[in-house]
Write a structure and sequence with these properties.
About 30% of the residues lie in helices and about 20% in strands. It contains eleven helices and 15 strands.
């Protein structure tokens, strides 16, 4: 892959929701840090002029970007361009090629529905706009293994894999990267980070709210496609991977793929699906919908390090809290009378705050030699300088740094894991909003003492 810095950023879908909520705030932040000095060309079919796009950007910043920074917004407006045209019309891409001018390494961001990817990629190739270029695409990367492979074929018809940047914004989040760093930057973890000391691993991604007016989208996705196949498996990869080689840039992604290939494809016995009561009354939701808003799965990682250690994932909407937390339960010490129960653990809270905690036992005050549980906790306070996910990922893509992007083999390996449990292989059991999902999910973790229930914000 060429290490050349992208000398233009083109984003298709410039008038859409993603641009409004995420891309314009990211671009303003880049301008504020002096990381944006190249032409930024929006493309859409809305009948708009450039001034209307600038107003759309301002509105997005006011509502979703923390406000307008006058100096940074002026800088953004100075490089912003707009092309209005149909994605099926070669004239649109001729106009884009002209607007690119002397740019030799543009980055094309497809912030559009996946059904349009093929059309846009084909025209980018035919018009010459893809020469020396990169392409940035948003998840979902297909709906199953077959469609993921088809998407990759579409992208590779014009772009080499080294020029394809698949955005999973979860990988751009500071706490997720913190998890990876904590694992490998602290010597005390490595000796116990294996099947000899770890009893089980649980990852919970809970949301206390419902689909928030996105019923139509959720009907197409569901919890497994929306977050298990991508976000949650990425976290499993970071937890289970072997130490990467620091001398080889692709090594982290290589180690992720190795983990995915060692995870057994899920079976219906490893799955409990649920749907919160009232979901079918949401706008855009089918009256007899069987789409899951909750999923709990048990994973088996068939590696030397993790053989026999179950990994559990639980995700859902309308659960008691909103948080993402990893809970690594350690095995019991041999002197059970001194330390009854199973209270040694490592806990990573990834959101809404970042917490790293270790569960331990200390002596209870008094004459008797009795232990009581305690927690050694570190709270990572935001310094205010962290980049938001989209700012980091856009900047990395324009620099050609693929570390935080999903690679083709990684995407296909992840789909291979969940392929057997897609759609209605088990019933979507109803659960009451505000609970931890269907009671049937408890059977998955019965062997390890049950689910760890994250608390509200600490």
């Amino acid at each position: 892959m060429s290490a050349a810095q992208s000398d233009a950023l083109v984003f298709f879908g410039a008038t859409g929701d993603l641009a409004h909520k995420k891309i314009f705030p990211a671009l303003q932040s880049m301008a504020k840090r002096n990381h944006l000095s190249v032409p930024v060309i929006g493309v859409a079919k809305a009948g708009w002029k450039l001034d209307q796009l600038r107003e759309r950007a301002r509105d997005g910043l006011e509502k979703f970007g923390g406000g307008v920074d006058a100096q940074a917004f002026e800088k953004l407006c100075s490089v912003l361009r707009y092309i209005d045209g149909d994605y099926n019309d070669p004239a649109t891409f001729a106009a884009l090629r002209k607007e690119l001018g002397a740019a030799q390494h543009p980055a094309h961001y497809l912030a559009i529905p996946p059904t349009l990817f093929g059309t846009v990629v084909e025209h980018l190739g035919k018009s010459g706009c893809a020469n020396g270029a990169r392409v940035i695409v948003e998840k979902p990367f297909g709906r199953d293994l077959e469609s993921a492979r088809h998407l990759n074929q579409t992208l590779h018809s014009v772009f080499d894999e080294s020029s394809v940047f698949r955005i999973d914004h979860y990988l751009g989040k500071e706490p997720v990267q913190n998890l990876l760093l904590f694992r490998f930057a602290n010597t005390f973890l490595e000796p116990i980070w294996n099947r000899n000391y770890v009893d089980s691993v649980q990852i919970t991604m809970a949301e206390s709210f419902g689909v928030q007016g996105r019923g139509r989208f959720y009907e197409e996705a569901g919890a497994i496609r929306d977050v298990v196949q991508n976000h949650m498996l990425q976290v499993v990869g970071f937890l289970a991977m072997e130490p990467p080689a620091i001398t080889y840039h692709e090594s982290i992604r290589d180690e992720q793929v190795k983990v995915f290939r060692m995870i057994r494809p899920l079976s219906p016995d490893d799955l409990v699906r649920g749907q919160f009561a009232g979901y079918r009354k949401e706008d855009g939701v089918a009256p007899a919908s069987t789409v899951e808003t909750f999923a709990a799965v048990r994973l088996h990682v068939d590696s030397w390090r993790w053989e026999g250690v179950p990994f559990f994932i639980r995700v859902g909407k309308c659960l008691p809290v909103t948080t993402t937390e990893v809970f690594v339960r350690l095995k019991r010490p041999p002197l059970v009378p001194l330390a009854p129960g199973n209270t040694n653990y490592v806990r990573f809270r990834l959101s809404p705050e970042v917490i790293i905690a270790i569960g331990a036992r200390v002596k209870q005050p008094g004459e008797r030699m009795v232990a009581e549980p305690t927690e050694l906790k570190v709270v990572h306070h935001s310094s205010g300088v962290e980049m938001e996910a989209y700012e980091r990922l856009l900047g990395d893509a324009m620099e050609g740094d693929a570390l935080l992007f999903a690679r083709q083999d990684e995407v296909e390996a992840a789909w291979s894991i969940v392929q057997p449990i897609l759609d209605n292989v088990t019933p979507a059991l109803e659960y009451a909003p505000g609970t931890w999902g269907p009671a049937e999910a408890d059977r998955l973790t019965a062997e390890v003492g049950g689910w760890h229930a994250p608390e509200a914000s600490e």
